[in-house]
Amino acid sequence: MALPPRIPVDTLLHLIDEPYQSACRTILQEHRVLFQTVQGSTHNHQAWPGGYYDHVQEVMNFAPHLYAIASRWFDTLPFSLSDALLILFLHDIEKPWKYEWGPDGHLQEIEALRSKDAQHEFRARKLHEYGIVLTAPQANAMRYVEGELAEYSNKRRVMNELAAFCHCCDTISARIGYNLPQAEDRLRG
Fold first, then answer.
1. Cα–Cα distance between 4 and 8 in angstroms, integer?
2. 67-to-3, 72, 164 alpha-carbon distances in Å
């Protein structure tokens, strides 16, 4: 079965409601070269030059397909596709500034962004810099897009529906499609 072609990030940003769309387009315009050059991680997923951009494009491409399925299955969802695309575009916004080349020639995390709290703070500053004010459900999704981790509780819901949806998109990309360009090259070759 042939897969649909990947939709460029620029096109997907058009599906995000204002005022978020304009802010996201500005972020992409100002940092496109950086986004298309840095790795997605040091080694776990999309760990090649440009992997960050590839990961963002991939998670955003999953969203319309998964949203269509989920909205048919659950009748109504308490979030829009626009909400999901916004969070997915921004969910790793610290990563282009998170790494540096170490003395051994390997990519490493800079000390200031090693902890999850420091990464969350960087994201908040970056959003503030571009005038992005998230709603409470969007803020929950931004906080838990990578999962509940140590905050998991069997007594209350930590992650909301939007966070869970975005987490699914992120997990598919980072844990199933972590080496996708190499896999595509093998299929073509």
1. 12
2. 17, 8, 12
pTM of the model: 0.90
pLDDT tens by residue, 1-36: 666 778 999 999 999 999 999 999 999 999 999 999
Tell me the H-state helices in the chain: 9-13, 20-35, 51-73, 81-90, 95-98, 116-129, 136-144, 161-171, 180-188
CA distance 24 to 94: 14
Residues ≥6 apart with Cβ < 8 Å to 18: none
Residues in the chain: 189
Whole-number Å distance between alpha carbons of 8 and 119: 26
- Mean pLDDT for 95-113 is 87
Is pLDDT of 154 > 80? yes
